[in-house]
Amino acid sequence: MQGTAGPVLVVIAAIIAVWYLAAVLLNAPFQRDTYKRGGVEDAPLAQLVADTLSQERPVLPAPHQVAVELWDTTANKAVTSKRSLVYHGSITLSSTLLGFVLGTVLGIGLAILVVHSRVLDKSLMPWVISSQTIPILAIAPMIIVVLNAIGISGLLPKAMISTYLSFFPVTVGMVKGLRSPEAIQMDLMKTYSASSAQALWKLRLPSAMPYLFASMKVGVAASLVGAIVGELPTGAVAGLGARLLSGSYYGQTVQIWSALIAAAVLAAALVALIGMAERLVLKRMGMRP
Q1: How many Cβ atoms are within 10 Å of 281's Cβ, its own excluded?
Q2: Rounded to whole angstroms, how far apart are CA atoms 40 and 33?
Q3: pLDDT digits over 30-75, tens only?
Q4: Is the per-residue pLDDT at 289 higher than 70?
Q5: Rounded mean pLDDT of the chain?
Q6: Closest CA to 144 of 23, 70, 235
Q7: How far is the C-alpha of 65 from the C-alpha of 80, rounded, in Å?
Q8: What is the DSSP-derived secondary structure letter of residue 43?
Q9: pLDDT tens for each residue of 244-259
Q10: Is 254 exposed, middle or buried, given 0-12, 13-18 or 19+ CB atoms closer than 10 A?
Q11: Cα dist. 130→17, 127, 168, 192, 198 in Å?
């Protein structure tokens, strides 16, 4: 851990430095125009830089502005407050987790069917792959409208969009994992007169565990994206997507960036939790020291 901390900190410092530089360059034209309208000429460079980094509605907010907004909307607001990022994050998290669970179950089920049926392998997999070529921004409103037409609203429509994005990596990863046992191992199962179900339970599924967890890490991040996208066409008033919408409507770029950072932190936390589960499960199975 100590050996990797240095490079990580260097990369973070470089990103912050580039961020500050970009904020100054992008916000400077508006600040110069403000000086011109206010009759200020030949403002010192230090004043220009300071003013570009403290604008109320900057084109690109500075890192410290985003940090202050994050602190204000997490630590200084009650969890139940409509201005709390914790509140909005919990709304998005609920649909993310529901969609992820549904997508994982669907992906595992499809993978098992594909591996055990040559017909489904040839007919179903192309449709699974082609389904991901449809832009999610195009299909999300369709899913929400159809489900609302049959009386389904609230959490489930957003979860269905998360399911749509998360089932694909799980399906592909599990198909690869279930096919990972070598031919000699499958022949040994046949020698023991093992049924297909026994071969699945005793050999294929254990061999597929590393592939499953790797695909779940991708799937949970995609599920979070789906939940946020699902909040956009509904005009939701709660959730990280709603924060992005309201920030866009009122030109609150600091609010937009704070919601984006919160979503990134939430995604990283979910991936880290799956990584912890992976280490525990694989260690219990004797597949990791």
Answers
A1: 15
A2: 10
A3: 988 888 888 877 778 888 899 899 888 899 999 999 999 999 888 8
A4: no
A5: 87
A6: 235
A7: 24
A8: -
A9: 888 888 888 999 999 9
A10: buried
A11: 41, 5, 10, 39, 32
- Helix, strand counts (H, E) of the chain: 12, 0
Instruction: Give me 221's structure tokens.
Output: 């991040």
Token pair listed for 253: 């770029």
What token pair was written down for 259?
Answer: 């919601």
Query: Alpha-carbon torsion 5, 11, 14, 20, what sign?
Result: negative
Closest CA to 161 of 110, 109, 224: 224
Amino acid at 92: T
Cα-based distances in Å from 113 to 86, 205, 215 = 40, 13, 18
What share of the chain has pLDDT > 70, as a percent? 97
Contacts of 167 (CB under 8 A, 6+ apart): 102, 103, 104, 106, 107, 110, 219
Residue 2 in this model has a pLDDT that exceeds 60: no
For 143-170, how does the pLDDT look when each residue is reduced to its tens digit (9 = 90+)? 887 887 887 777 888 888 899 999 999 9
Amino acid at 18: V
- 89 vs 200: CA distance, rounded Å: 38
The DSSP call for residue 263 is H
Which pTM does this prediction carry? 0.87
Tokens (6 digits) for 283: 């260690």
Q: Put residue 154 in one of left, alpha, beta given phi > 0 → left and psi -120 to 50 → alpha.
A: left
Which 3 state secondary structure label does DSSP give 81? coil
The secondary structure of residue 233, as a DSSP letter, is: T
What DSSP state is assigned to residue 200?
I
